[in-house]
Design goal:
Distance between the termini: 37 Å
Number of strands: 8
Bound molecules: NADP nicotinamide-adenine-dinucleotide phosphate
Largest sheet: 8 strands, mixed
Order of helices and strands: EHEHEHEHEHEHEE
Structural class: alpha/beta
Radius of gyration: 17 Å
């Protein structure tokens, strides 16, 4: 069994970035806990990783259910006593057809904030003692370039694509900074990564700008394995700080 353990949320889809980053981390010697909200999906992905020779297990984790976060944290505590890497990858989908803050479906705004921000916050609370118990824990919040459309008091375009999703990613970046400050003077570094456009939903059509999930996953894993003097509280794109 590898020494280091990494937990990835929203890793139920075989084409998704969650499994892709789990594969990179497993290849770098982590035991990976892949989680998904749908029963059975996480274990299916974990079985595929084990078939590739990696150390992996699957657990159900719905970010809207605090009992799930507590159960998963309890499992990690009893099995491993610490958590080395947390990848907050799960997210609701962008509502691509909505182009204005005024047209945003407020129920979807609530969902986006619940999954992409509150769910991350609650999970970090649940595993905080396990992160602090690790010698060099890393938290990676998977953001999106969509956050750039949102800002406080800036001169912005009138149109905002996927406003609920974009606003939630902006808030996730803010949460990242606040959590990084909270963990200051500990061994925990917290950063956000914009994975760029990756071809994870071929059913929606693939744009020529989309890259393979494995390419984005390398940079997510990079933030998950920063050295002790690495950055914290930032937003990164391919290893470059962008916010
Ligand atoms: N692909 C891109 O071009 C791109 C660009 C920028 C940012 N990102 C970010 O990258 C991350 C991964 O995206 P992806 O492209 O790989 O798409 P994805 O496979 O759809 O990943 C999102 C996953 O989150 C899961 N999820 C949704 N609600 C959840 C909940 N309440 N609890 C637990 N899991 C939940 C989804 O599960 P279900 O399958 O059950 O719905 C889905 O598997 C996301 O944070 C996304 O915002 C992606």
């Amino acid at each position: 069994m590898p020494e280091k353990t990494a937990l990835v949320t929203g890793a139920g889809r075989a084409e998704g970035l969650g499994v892709a980053v789990a594969r990179v981390l497993a290849g770098q010697g982590h035991h990976v806990i892949v989680t998904a909200r749908k029963d059975g999906e996480a274990e299916e992905r974990a079985a595929e990783l084990r078939a590739e020779g990696f150390s992996a297990e699957g657990l159900r984790l719905d970010l809207t259910d605090s009992a799930d976060a507590a159960r998963v944290a309890g499992h990690v505590k009893s099995r491993y006593g610490r958590l080395d890497v947390l990848i907050n990858n799960a997210s609701c989908m962008p509502e691509f057809d909505t182009l204005s803050m005024l047209d945003a479906d407020i129920d979807y705004v609530r969902t986006a904030l619940e999954v992409n921000v509150v769910g991350v916050w609650a999970l970090v609370q649940a595993v905080a003692p396990l992160l602090e118990a690790a010698p060099a824990a890393r938290v990676v919040n998977v953001s999106s370039g969509a956050y750039r459309q949102i800002a406080a008091g800036a001169d912005l375009p009138q149109q905002v694509g996927a406003p609920a999703y974009s606003f939630s990613k902006y808030a996730l970046n803010a949460l990242t900074g606040s959590l990084a400050a909270t963990f200051r003077d500990t061994n925990v570094l917290v950063n956000a990564v914009d994975p760029g456009r990756a071809a994870t939903h071929p059913e929606l059509g693939v744009d020529e700008e989309d890259r393979p999930a494995a390419e984005s996953a390398v940079w997510m894993a990079w933030a998950a394995t920063l050295p002790a003097d690495g950055p914290t509280g930032g937003v990164f794109y391919d290893g470059e700080r962008v916010a």
